[in-house]
Amino acid sequence: MSRMKGPAIFLAQFAGKNAPFDTLANISRWAGELGYKGIQMPTLEAGLFDLAKAAESVDYCDELRGICAEHGVEISELSTHLQSQLVAVHPAYDEQFDAFAPAALRGKPAARREWAVQQLHLAARASRNLGLAAHATFSGALLWHTLYPWPPRPAGLVEAGFRELAARWQPILDAFDTAGVDLCYEIHPGEDLHDGVTFERFLAATGNHPRCSILYDPSHFVLQQLDYLQFIDFYHERIKMFHVKDAEFKPNGRSGVYGGYQGWTDRPGRFRSPGDGQVDFTGIFSQFARYGYQGWAVLEWECCLKHPQDGAREGVDFINRHIIRTSDRSFDDFAGRRGDEAGNRRILGLD
What we know:
- The strands form 2 sheets. An 8-stranded parallel beta barrel has the order 1-2-3-4-5-6-7-10, surrounded by 5 helices.
- The chain has 13 helices and 10 strands.
- It is α/β, with parallel strands linked by helices and 351 residues long.
- The chain is globular.
- 42% of the residues are buried.
- It has a single domain, classed as Alpha-Beta Barrel (TIM Barrel), CATH 3.20.20.
- Helix 7 packs across helix 8.
- Helix content is 40%, strand content 14%.
- The model has no long low-confidence stretch (mean pLDDT 96).
């Protein structure tokens, strides 16, 4: 019998300067009172978490766990989405991604990248000190500007891009292996790892690294019209994290997958609160039960319409209703009989 863990909630879209989102004690109390059992922690929120201290001090990590436990939650995973984006940035995106780095490093791509790599190494040790099994991250991108094959890509460009991306991540993956933590890349538009094929390219370029894993978020697959249920069939052995996030795709005569540079409210592909979009969560949770997924179900609230606190409140019941406790016996066991070789041969007409 197995059951995924949850519900948990990703704090990135909620953390802020105002209570109850300003301190770990306050936000843990808020999440626990809603009914969440876990919180996924962004590691750049200074009011909630000190990454460098967590990497060096088991006592500090014990203190964090104690604060969470007091309010009925635990840290499910850490996240370095913003820092990891800076491991690989094409120069065309330098100015936009500078906002992810400390002010002193903006306009200094090499120093910015070095800081990002250091952040990932800290995250590996912090995850180990917290006793966590998985970590959430992005791959960054060197090839995203060539996504559409016009002008035609020169021969060898894609292979060169993934070789370089893997070379940048290999030491980080090794650090997570040393820490005993799976590094889970969110398969996401804007990253070079944005679908199954690109994950396979990267995995091969890392030599099938044992810690190279997937953060599964079906909302990104709806927007690119990928079969998100079959994705689980293909990659379930590598899926170690799960964001419960909904989306809808409603193309029209004016706009489709690419969105026409429109904002989130107007584009055909939009993120929605769980249950308000088109994602077949019953199918997803059934797939995870089939394959024995043991990780967390983590609400990531991103909706172009609904208030975040309404989405957070509704998310608890939504996840609880979908988590499947697998059975330890077959439904037709009552009608079965014990087998033995002689009996089986008689049934087959062999004796």
